Amino acid sequence: METEAHVGRTETEAYVLTRPERRSGPMIFASPHSGRDYPAAFLAQAVLDRHAIRSSEDAFVDELFGMAPQMGAPLLAARVPRAYLDLNRAADELDPGVIEGLVRVPHNPRISSGLGVIPRVVAGGRAIYRGKLSLAEADARLKRYWHPYHQALARLIEDVRSEFGQAVLIDCHSMPHEAIEAHTRPGQPRPEVVLGDRYGATAGREVMERVEAAFAGAGLRVGRNAPFAGAYVAQAYGRPSRGVHVVQVEIDRALYMDEVRVEPLAGFADFRALIAGVVAELVGGAGEVRLAAE
User: Fold this and answer.
1) How many of the other CB atoms lie within 10 Å of CB of 241?
2) What domains sit in the chain, N to C, each tagged with a CATH number?
3) CA–CA separation, 228 and 4 (whole Å)
């Protein structure tokens, strides 16, 4: 059940939605992988300790973008952890390797790697569970967390699109530093931010250029679509022809956190201020994007 903690803030066990006093444009920010409310029963089921399980978490990303409502844009942040339920996967991306009672499923590289909607592994391919979960438990997680989050996101997008004629969703994530190193060719500059629009399928060109310019203007090296082009949220909601644009943003974790300890670096506040400048540029320049798109 939803409860209003204070004006502009809605909290459920699945997410926290913080709305601005007044929306200043079509921008929306969401963080589906920063949830850190780990159920005690889940931790008891897991082989890994709580620290190891957090390696899949986009830790502190909701804090990096936490100023968006003050600037006129809503922020939808997950509370449910990614290792427990992945909100950036389709509800039917169920893994027979971790869920009992499933018939054979079509080939899906995310499921094959253990990263379905109920993940089998965390970063580094480390198994989460001792055995398998029941299909009933998987369905219960989807009903309790996945559907409420996506219902809230869909409503938010439609409300913004109705008001401004379009909606621009910035789907906020972080990426392991080693993943960037592994996918960067020798001699090539390593991107610090990777923007994904499924190679132009989920966001208009003007929108993508504006997002890239905002991060580059903050002094960050920006890449596009490699190694992260956008997952379920981008694919499911990005419809540029209908005025809904989705850009997935991946930020190198080494810029602001100790990945081993899962703790903010000493310069976290400074980096958060830098991201605040990016958000301000995006929210403030959204009208220009809209005019260009029209």
Assistant:
1) 6
2) 3-40+51-87+141-293 (3.40.630.40)
3) 35
